[in-house]
Amino acid sequence: MSTRPPLRIAVAGLGAVGMAVVAALEKGLPGCELAAVSARDIGAAKARLSAATSRDVPVVPVEALEPLADIVVEAAPAALLPAIAEPFLRAGKGVVVLSAGALLRAEHLLELARAHGGQITVPTGALLGLDAVAAAAEGTIHAVRMVTRKPVRGLVGAPYLVENNIAIESIKEPLRVFRGSPREAAIGFPANLNVAVALSLAGIGPDRTELEIWADPALTRNTHRIEVDADSASFSMQIENIPSENPKTGRITALSVVACLRKMGAPLRVGT
């Protein structure tokens, strides 16, 4: 009986999410193997990688990843998404995208995937219920509303706050700092609101989805509440995510990527 060779996985970016994915791959994901990694500082990446694996895994610049892997996990700053994704999509390969907001500014990546048989996968990340939203979108969704509440330190420094002179460091009560669409939020909060873009892509799009962002000094967890009204169902969901070592990213984000990779090599897939 023949067995398929394992999927060769590259990880671009060795921050909190990237290192968690590397650790999971090295621990063992059926049907997958760590093939290569990349980061801006190659020397620092090699040092970090040595703590996670005893194997001689190649550490290469972004542009050298594609020949070494079948799928790349993008866990890097959003600005690097095109450089990471384009070679894989041109080769008809897969890209797991965490910087979902950057997709709105790099729509040519969808055309590349379509033209060459590649695939862009946006994991559920720090949200929940995207299966339900995607299912509802097969019918008619009337409205999607998301309210995000974050600890102050998870929002400090966001471009939208800086440009609009919104100071949140010393607030004593919850403060709504943004109301608009995920498309607008992806520009103003590039490190924070990939979740809102993922929700919009699963549902009614980045312009029709309603979004509020609150800074809350009493919170220690990133909280997202979603309300959906559709012709098939009305539902609401809330998740409270424990931050990783990077306060802008929840621990469950990396676990979502691991679950996504596990599905790719599994004989049983549960969920849409």
Total E-strand runs: 10
Overall body shape:
globular
Largest sheet: 5 strands, parallel
Structural class: alpha/beta
What do the pLDDT scores average to?
92
In sequence order, what are the helices and strands, one letter per element?
Answer: EHEHEHEHHEHEHEHHEEEH
Instruction: Report the sheet-strand fraction.
Output: 15-25%
Note poorly predicted spans: none
What distance separates the N and C termini? 29 Å
Counted by DSSP, the helix tally is 10
Instruction: Work out the radius of gyration.
Output: 19 Å
Strand order of the largest sheet: 2-1-3-4-5
Give helix % range.
25-40%
Describe the structure.
There is one protein chain. By secondary structure, the chain is of the alpha/beta class. It has helices at 16-28, 42-50, 81-90, 100-103, 108-116, 130-137, 159-163, 182-188, 194-202, 251-264; strands at residues 7-12, 32-38, 71-74, 94-97, 119-121, 141-150, 175-180, 210-215, 222-230, 234-241. The strands form two sheets. Strands 2-1-3-4-5 form a five-stranded parallel sheet, sandwiched between helices. Helix 3 packs parallel to helix 5 and helix 8 (182-188) runs antiparallel to helix 9 (194-202). It is globular and about 50 Å long. The two termini are 29 Å apart.
